[in-house]
Each structure stands twice: as structure tokens, then as C-alpha cells.
């Protein structure tokens, strides 16, 4: 009986140790996953150095080129005075019409709800957008993201733009939950 009790205690101790090791391994794996995601975000943003130097027209052409790379057809840069919020138009690979508004604001600025509301008022009504997309070189405010989620607008902020620039396709961003994603924290002008 004493041997059985000792064996049971040893098995229980080994079970406790294994459980603690497994939990520690899981915590370490989660921490590593978070670290890698943060590093990927930083790398994606760093890869945008040339984009920060573009003027408005070059930025619109850059976005049009990303659309073409991702299989969009009939892509046109239409931005300029009187564009009514459409800087780039085209057809997604599945045939839906995409209308894109591009904003090249400074890093430390944010795009607010008013800009998103204005774009919403013209994207579908004036330009026939099936998929309205707003691309910005900064971040969106929480009210802007909430409005976009409610009205099914796609927002691509500086963080997502970094991933788009690095090879993620435009269609990957179309089903994101805009109301829950992103950040509304302004970036410092010298932020990486």
C-alpha cells in the first residue's frame, strides 16, 4: 500500500510539473507570437519610407499600382480638383467596383469622422462604388472607424498600408472588422 501511495504521489508531482511546463511554454509561445506581430508591423511601416516622400499625385499612383498588382482591372487615377472624393477607381478581381480616397496626411494627424462621412456621401452615390476604400498615411479616429463599420467602408490606415505594401492583397482587407481593428493613437512625426 505504501508503494502505491509513493507511486501516486510521484505521478501527481510529475503531472503538476508537466502542467506548469506546458503552461509556461504556451505563455512563451503567445509572447513570441505577439513580439513577431509587432515586429512585422514595424517592418511594414519602415518599408513605407519612400511613400512618405511622395506628393499627393504620386501617392494616388502608388495606390493605383497596388490595386493593379492585386489583380484589379480598369484601374484609373482620377484624383484632382473636383474629384468628389475619388482618387482611384477600378474593378476588383471579382468584378465589383472599387472607389478609393487617398489621404496623405502627416504622421501625427488622424483622419476623423467628418472626412469619412464626406467620402461615404460621394463614393456610392456619385461614383457607383460597390466597395468604398479610404487609404491614409496616418490613423483613423475611433468615431471614424465606428462610422466606417456602420456604413461598410473599408479603412486602410498606415499600419494596414504597410502590410498592403509588403504583399498582402487588397481583398484581404475587405472583410476586416473596422470598428474593432486599428488604433486611433496619433503617431509622433518621427515614429517608426
Structure description:
The protein is α/β, with parallel strands linked by helices and 192 residues long. It is built from six helices and seven strands, in the order αααββββαββαβα. The chain has helices spanning 2-46, 49-52, 56-69, 113-123, 142-150, 158-165; strands at residues 73-77, 88-91, 97-103, 110-111, 131-136, 139-140, 154-156. The strands form two sheets. A five-stranded mixed β-sheet has the order 1-2-3-5-7, sandwiched between helices. The protein has a two-stranded parallel sheet with strand order 4-6. A hairpin with a 5-residue loop joins β2 and β3 (97-103). The model has no long low-confidence stretch (mean pLDDT 84).
What's the layout of helices and strands?
Blueprint: H1 2-46, H2 49-52, H3 56-69, E1 73-77, E2 88-91, E3 97-103, E4 110-111, H4 113-123, E5 131-136, E6 139-140, H5 142-150, E7 154-156, H6 158-165
Parallel strand pairs: 3-5, 4-6, 5-7
Antiparallel strand pairs: 1-2, 2-3
Amino acid at each position: 500500500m505504501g508503494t502505491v501511495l509513493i507511486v501516486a504521489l510521484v505521478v501527481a508531482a510529475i503531472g503538476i510539473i508537466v502542467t506548469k511546463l506546458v503552461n509556461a511554454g504556451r505563455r512563451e509561445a503567445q509572447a513570441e507570437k505577439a513580439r513577431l506581430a509587432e515586429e512585422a508591423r514595424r517592418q511594414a511601416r519602415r518599408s513605407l519610407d519612400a511613400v512618405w516622400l511622395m506628393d499627393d499625385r504620386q501617392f494616388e499612383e502608388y495606390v493605383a499600382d497596388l490595386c493593379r498588382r492585386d489583380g484589379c482591372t480598369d484601374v484609373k487615377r482620377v484624383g484632382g480638383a473636383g474629384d468628389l472624393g475619388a482618387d482611384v477607381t477600378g474593378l476588383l478581381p471579382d468584378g465589383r467596383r472599387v472607389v478609393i480616397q487617398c489621404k496623405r496626411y502627416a504622421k501625427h494627424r488622424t483622419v476623423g469622422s467628418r472626412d469619412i462621412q464626406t467620402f461615404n456621401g460621394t463614393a456610392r452615390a456619385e461614383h457607383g462604388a460597390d466597395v468604398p476604400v479610404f487609404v491614409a498615411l496616418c490613423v483613423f479616429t475611433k468615431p471614424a472607424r465606428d462610422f466606417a463599420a456602420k456604413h461598410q467602408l473599408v479603412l486602410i490606415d498606415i499600419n494596414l498600408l504597410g502590410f498592403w505594401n509588403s504583399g498582402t492583397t487588397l481583398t484581404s482587407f475587405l472583410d476586416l472588422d473596422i470598428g474593432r481593428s486599428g488604433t486611433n493613437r496619433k503617431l509622433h512625426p518621427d515614429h517608426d
